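Hey, resending since the last one bounced:
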Amino acid sequence: MATVLGVVPILFVRRLSELWKDVLVAFTAGIMVSASTFGLMPQAIKESGIIALSLGLITGVLLLDLIENNIPHIDVENKPGFTNMDSKALLVLIALFIHNIPEGLSTGFSYASQQASLGPMVAIAIGAQNMPEGLILAVFLLNSQATRRKALIMAALTGLMEMVSAVIGYFTASYVQNVVGYGLAFAAGAMLFIVYKELIPESHGHGYERPSTYSFIFGLLVMVYITQVYA
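The structure tokens again:
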């Protein structure tokens, strides 16, 4: 749903300014860092100990690194129209399917945790990340001569993969003993990798570093307040 909501602005505008894109991406980064640092990592230690945290976090980072090296992520800049839109759209769809699997697993593991408030908190963090990602995907597709309708459908499909993987993560963690702590640490590693590999560099590459920095801090504080509400 968050991915689809991110696409809604393209129904009214066709271009996204660099300033707003950077601010939104940095805000998302702050939310994800906060959720990982104050939610996932402490609960992983509580559930399974520091060794599980270390192993799970490193696994999450390595898996995301492997995905990034082999599956290119979307980039809305410098993308002229493509003559074979269907082929390009399929490649983007496959890439985002794979990118979204760890995010869905993160949500599922969090809902299986002993801390009832962790699931909603991580779901909000992942959803916050999905909204600008959906918008960026839609802008990418429009620049590639796709229709608004196709952009909306493709965004919905990529979001659907997160729902499926979230269910898989939840039932895996619920029925396999001692896996929850590793899963939470894995989720933290995956989220931190996304932040430092993608979101922060993307929000600091167009001359709007200062507003992006403030937006990052604001996003971090927003998630801290959300954490307190659900605590």
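The helical segments are 2-7, 18-48, 50-70, 85-111, 118-143, 148-175, 180-203, 209-230.

Sorry for the duplicate.
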